Amino acid sequence: MDTSLRTLFSHLEDEEVTFFADLILPIPVPRLFTYRVPRGMAEILKIGARVIVPFGKNNGRVLTAVVARLHNSPPTGYQARYISEVLDEYPLVTSYQLELFRWMSEYYMCCIGDVMNVALPSGLKISSQSKVQFNPDFDYPELLTPVEEMLLTELKKHPALSYEELGRLVGEGGNVPAVIKSLVGKKAVIVFEEVKEKYVPKMVRKIRLHRNYEEKEQLLVLLQRLEKLPKQQEVVMRYLRHVPVQITPSLNQKGLDKSILNQDDELSQSSLTTLIKNQVFETFEVIQPRFADNLVPQAEIRLTDAQRQAAQDIMAQFERQNIVLFHGITGSGKTEIYIDLIQQALAGGTQVLYLLPEIALTTQIVVRLQRVFGDKMGIYHSKFSDNERVEVWKGVVSGQYQFVVGVRSAVFLPFDNLGLIIVDEEHETSYKQHDPAPRYHARDVAMMLAHWQQAKVLLGSATPSLESYYQAQQGRYGLVELFQRFGDATLPDIMLVNTQQEKKQKTMKNEFSSALLDELETNLERKEQSILFQNRRGYSPYMQCEDCDWTAECPNCAVSLTYHQRDAELRCHYCGHKEAVPRVCPVCGSTKVRTIGYGTEKLEDQLQIIFPQARILRMDLDTTRAKNAYQQIIQEFEGGQVDMLVGTQMITKGLDFDNVSLVGIFDADRLIHFPDFRATERAFQMLTQVSGRAGRRAGRKGKVLIQTTNPQQTILQKIIENDYRGLYEEEIQERQNFNYPPFSRLIKLTIRHTDKAISLQAAERLAAELTDALGESRVLGPEEPLVERIRNQFLFDILIKIEREKMNVKAVKAYIQDRINDILTDKGLRQVSIVADVDCL
User: Fold this and answer.
1) CA–CA separation, 445 vs 501, rounded Å?
2) Of 110, 364, 602, 609, which is least surrounded by CB within 10 A?
3) Is the dihedral angle over the CA atoms 705, 707, 709, 715 positive or is it negative?
4) Which helix (H) or strand (E) holds 128?
5) What is the residue range of the signal peptide feature (predicted)?
6) Read out DSSP for 738-789?
């Protein structure tokens, strides 16, 4: 569809029309901004294109905006400014995406600019930087300080310098803004904004023979001429071995990577430089895709009879339903079924999006997918650089990538012909974004995206969310279940270890029960691998003085500081505050300051002491910050270079290792008794998923040991029996009794302020107004959350329950937003922050 201004308003005379564009700006303001379109841009500006615009007082900021609407009506209430520049010849944002932005801003109660800011990779957003240049009209009528004279002397040598460059010239202690302000006042310098687009294509420098030597006769003459220059002749011969110009002259235009000719140290760089200088060779640059090195030969996927039947059942369900829930136990081979469905969708000429909850999970699955789909597949997640994400974005627009695998942010990619969306591990909380806005759930956004593009959605999980399973039971989703593991593999044996009893018998060694240590030792002797799960990172959750009970706490948040032994520091996992470990208690001076509790780092440390011969790795947020850290850890473990892998919940999700026969689970009680209405469901999901990593191949029965202080807990028996249906029936009755999802929608409002009294005042006023309109049963709070202070702001939560069948959710949200605006416009409460989290977890 042609969405240019000339097409939209072709019936109007050009000289009589002033064109305007409504733009989405990446700022938290609940409206679009209207800008005037310069005449020269009218032919090229289109809906969905990016533009550069001035913004703010005196046009002091430069922003990247997206065109949402084109028209010829000037704005009311303000003078429209001109668009500075158009960045795209063709739109990089589709009409479906614009519709998605609008829906998300309304549904998740945030600004459309917030959605755009999260959706677009930062490489597609323009950065502006203040630059300073010498004013050629300045004739030194003013007295200058020595620093000013020095800066002016340097500025004369350069077209312009940045604030950062001027800061280096002034040195530490120099006030650069003050100096620049003084020079501007004296009209000695000009300050301007230099705009740069962040995305930079990957360029590869190549080399080729000059056209004069492409013909065989001229090439022979060249080689004869170089006989007295053997090094130069060898460089030419090496080129000809890679590019046989004498046989096919046209190959020369593609050239050869310059690095190939520089591999041998004996061939000096100067020889190649001389040949280029003498126009024997010429250099040129080409754009190279960043994912070209990852390509793997294709391999055929063969389904078992059970898998083939499941795939057929899913396709049959798609005939009647747009959304199908695929409930397949751990190790049942869901990925192979997904591949079969993806191949069918691509063969039908449509696009496919495959969502995964964790970057760690993409690492292993991507390799399997690349063996099948090669360079047809794009990969999209936050560990990729800005440039890599932009290349995938543009690859979807151009049609290069018909199939993309990625984490939650991949729902924002510019698809326009989706046929299938797969949401793997659909129950995972990682699909929900908590900060910043929009606080969206990728599974729900994917379903809306599929609805607009008439695509099918497959939700896959071994432990589906209660909400999804309920929808399937009600007939709103299709349901396909697979309870057979791939091949002849069987589910692992699960044992409960009573740590309370072992402590009484003094058979515990640090955090390890004797039963777990015995199994770990046996596994080592059999040269089989073990996974150990503890959902808490760091060495110890807090440090405490044995004499006065002082506990190390964060100065900004109401939490204890976590001890990290490797870095020898105490760290806050909420605000990032760090401090050194105290040698003595800062309150009483005692030297008896001890660590309490344990995290993954401590388990790794203790394992290394108990099993010094074992090769141990840890996978948590602290060890996977680097770009390729996930991949390296998984490759080492998969390759058999590691005996034991210690990790947090990121090791529970879909990872597939042939040689893992033992899983140990620590601190299960903390998961089960967490104060949340979803705690039982989450504990079942997490413990079942991590248990499913064991014994995934035929002939090797896996074993799982769960350490608990109370083996009689009902939830543990259901995990042993893999009784998801039993869990569902109990939990769904509880949800209905207390009006929790799926029978209601939840909206959590968090009120924040640096003064606790003001925060409470705003929260109580808001809760009272909402209660008056919605009733006491629907409004809970305000209450202090588990962590009541974060980054020196005091928090209060209000929870709102909206029945799905009885209430107009859209109208309720509008009413809530009006009451929030009343609070924020109150003179005494303006500094209060109120965050709305729709469908909170």
Assistant:
1) 48
2) 609
3) negative
4) strand 126-134
5) none
6) TT-TTSEEEEEEEEEESSHHHHHHHHHHHHHHHHHHH-TTTEEEEE--SS-E
Burial 123-148 (b: 16+ CB within 10 A, else e): bbbbebebbbebbeeeeeeeeeeebb
CB 28 within 8 A of CB 114: yes
- Rounded to an integer, what distance in angstroms lies between the CA atom of residue 646 and that of residue 617? 6
Question: Is residue 271 domain-shared with residue 362, that is, in the same domain?
Answer: no
pLDDT at 1: 47
The reply to whether 114 and 134 lie within a common domain is no
Please report, as a single letter, which amino acid is at residue 203.
M
**Residues pairing with 705 in the sheet:** 495, 664
Name which of 679, 242, 250, 318 is nearest 478 in CA terms. Answer: 318
Is 367 in contact with 296 (CB distance < 8 Å)? yes
Residues 6+ apart with CB under 8 A from 39: none
Residue 654 pLDDT: 64
Is 110 annotated for ligand binding?
Answer: no
Contact 743, 802 (CB under 8 A): no
Is 585 labeled as ligand-binding? yes
Give the model's pLDDT for residue 15: 52
Return the HEC string of 15-68: HHCCCEEEEECCCCCCCCEEEECCHHHCCCCECCCEEEEEECHHHCEEEEEEEE
List of the chain residues with pLDDT < 50: 1, 14, 294-295
Q: With CA atoms as reference, report the closest residue to 562 among 535, 596, 591, 607.
A: 596
Q: What is the CATH number of the domain that holds 16?
A: 3.40.1440.60
Domain identity same for 376 and 463: yes
840 has binding-site annotation = no
Retrieve residue 318's tokens. Answer: 């798609």
CB count in 10 Å sphere of residue 171: 9
111 assigned binding-site residue:
no
We report the CATH number of the domain holding residue 186 as 1.10.10.10
Statement to judge: residues 614 and 690 lie in one domain: yes
The dihedral over CA atoms of 226, 228, 234, 236, expressed in degrees to the nearest 10, equals -10
Q: Is 548 annotated as a binding residue?
A: yes
Specify if 487 maps to a domain: no
Q: Rounded distance, CA 127 to CA 351, Å?
A: 32
pLDDT of residue 264: 55
Phi, psi of 594, rounded to the nearest 5 degrees: -125, 155
Q: 140 with 234, same domain?
A: no
> Which helix H or strand E contains 479, and what residues bound it?
strand 478-482
Q: At which residue do the structure tokens 């020889």 appear?
A: 271
Print the SS3 string covering 277-320.
HCCCEEEEEEECCCCHHHCCCCCCCCCCHHHHHHHHHHHHHHCC
Tell me, what DSSP letter sits at residue 474?
T
Look up the domain containing 810 and give its range: 744-838
Round to whole Å and give the CA distance between 705 and 648: 16
Domain total for the chain? 7
Nearest to 322 by CA among 448, 462, 474, 481: 448
Same domain? 436 vs 325:
yes
Q: Is 77 exposed, middle or buried (0-12, 13-18, 19+ CB in 10 A)?
A: exposed
The span from the CA of 840 to the CA of 435, in Å, is 12
Q: How confident is the model at residue 292, as a pLDDT?
A: 52
* Helix (H) / strand (E) containing 835: strand 833-838
Please indicate, yes or no, if residue 604 is contained in any of the structural domains: no
Asked if 414 and 510 sit in the same domain, the reply is no
Residues 556-591 as b or e (16 or more Cβ within 10 Å = b): bbbbbbbbbbeeeebbbbeeebeeebeeebeeeeee
Separation CA 785–CA 759 (nearest Å): 13
Alpha helices in 474-614 (DSSP H): 499-504, 514-525, 600-610
Alpha-carbon distance of 326 to 462, in angstroms, equals 8
- Whether 577 is covered by a domain: the verdict is yes
